[in-house]
């Protein structure tokens, strides 16, 4: 993504949007911070057209505010709004977990068992960055295995808006020690091919996240 022609391709723009998304989620770009197209173009080696398209994509996800004649800024999502989004996610994410439990293959079961161990090991070793990455990977894989297109699309938007709050929570050792077994319970239910248990474990985990945010 070093020349303007490549940066303007759909693939180049998608990679650029992902890079900016990660910077927002990780806190590199703070809430309310202006996102100046010329600066982003220099930072990411992309054309301004590609930057503008990427920002429009992120605005559609609710991560960026586009202000008429004033450019773009990182959208600030309050704790109250994050909780409301999590309440919606309980239903949709529970559905995806149930569908994943119905549709998971033997190879994917082996993958999930390894992922379960990796999640627990990352918390035991205090590697909370790794733990956060594994959580996000688990969320993505559950959506993929569920093969529920509409639910996955809804969740990709909702998750992007709340993950910044959850990212900060995952770096609290006490919180990680509590949530890791919750993720393990979700995995256990999915690999046992129990849709009801998978949905219940997912709802319980998100309810625990809501409690943590409220605290």
UniProtKB/TrEMBL annotation:
Key word Transcription present: yes
PROSITE patterns hit by this protein: HTH_GNTR
Species annotation: Georgenia deserti
Alphabetical UniProt keywords: DNA-binding, Transcription, Transcription regulation
Record has DNA-binding as a keyword: yes
Coiled coil regions in record: none
PANTHER family named in the record: GLUCONATE OPERON TRANSCRIPTIONAL REPRESSOR, TRANSCRIPTIONAL REGULATOR, GNTR FAMILY
The organism's place on the tree of life at top rank: Bacteria
Pfam families according to UniProt: FCD, GntR
InterPro entries found in the cross-reference section: GntR_C, TF_FadR/GntR_C, Tscrpt_reg_HTH_GntR, WH-like_DNA-bd_sf, WH_DNA-bd_sf
Name used for this protein in its record: GntR family transcriptional regulator
CDD domains for this protein: WHTH_GntR (cd07377)
């Amino acid at each position: 993504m070093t020349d303007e022609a490549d940066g303007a391709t759909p693939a180049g723009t998608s990679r650029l949007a992902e890079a900016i998304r990660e910077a927002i989620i990780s806190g590199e770009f703070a809430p309310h911070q202006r996102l100046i197209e010329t600066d982003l173009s220099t930072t990411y080696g992309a054309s301004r057209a590609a930057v503008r398209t990427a920002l429009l994509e992120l605005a559609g996800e609710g991560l960026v505010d586009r202000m008429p004649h004033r450019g773009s800024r990182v959208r600030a999502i309050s704790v109250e709004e994050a909780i409301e989004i999590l309440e919606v996610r309980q239903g949709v994410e529970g559905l995806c977990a149930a569908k994943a439990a119905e549709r998971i293959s033997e190879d994917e079961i082996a993958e999930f068992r390894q992922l379960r161990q990796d999640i627990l090991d990352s918390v035991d070793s205090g590697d909370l960055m790794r733990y956060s990455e594994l959580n996000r990977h688990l969320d993505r894989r559950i959506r993929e295995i569920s093969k529920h297109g509409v639910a996955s699309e809804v969740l990709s938007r909702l998750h992007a808006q709340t993950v910044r709050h959850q990212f900060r929570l995952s770096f609290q050792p006490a919180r990680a020690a509590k949530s890791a077994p919750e993720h393990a319970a979700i995995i256990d239910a999915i690999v046992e091919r129990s849709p009801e248990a998978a949905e219940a474990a997912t709802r319980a985990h998100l309810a625990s996240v809501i409690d943590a945010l409220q605290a």
